[in-house]
Write a structure and sequence with these properties.
Blueprint: H1 2-39, H2 59-73
Length: about 80
């Protein structure tokens, strides 16, 4: 019976040690995140520049699309507008 008591004591000490070490790791990680966010500046992302307005298709592409539609529909279809997605 004496061995069972020592086993429970070792189990409690071991589990408590692991719990405390995990708490220290969690608190250290939170502190590190706060410190880095306070010290390091936020990255600024530059917007992409495009030559045409957003979503518009240039004239050459529009002509090709019109030819394709004419060929598929036998000249009965037409394109009123086209936008890039």
């Amino acid at each position: 019976m004496d061995n069972l008591g020592i086993g429970f004591e070792l189990m409690i000490v071991g589990m408590s040690t692991v719990f405390l070490i995990l708490l220290i790791v969690i608190w250290g990680g939170k502190f590190l995140i706060k410190a880095v966010n306070k010290i390091a500046p936020e990255e600024v992302v530059a917007p992409k520049k495009s030559t045409t307005s957003v979503g518009d298709v240039d004239g050459g592409t529009m002509a090709i699309l019109q030819q394709v539609v004419n060929q598929i529909t036998g000249g009965k279809g037409h394109i009123s507008s086209a936008k890039k997605i």
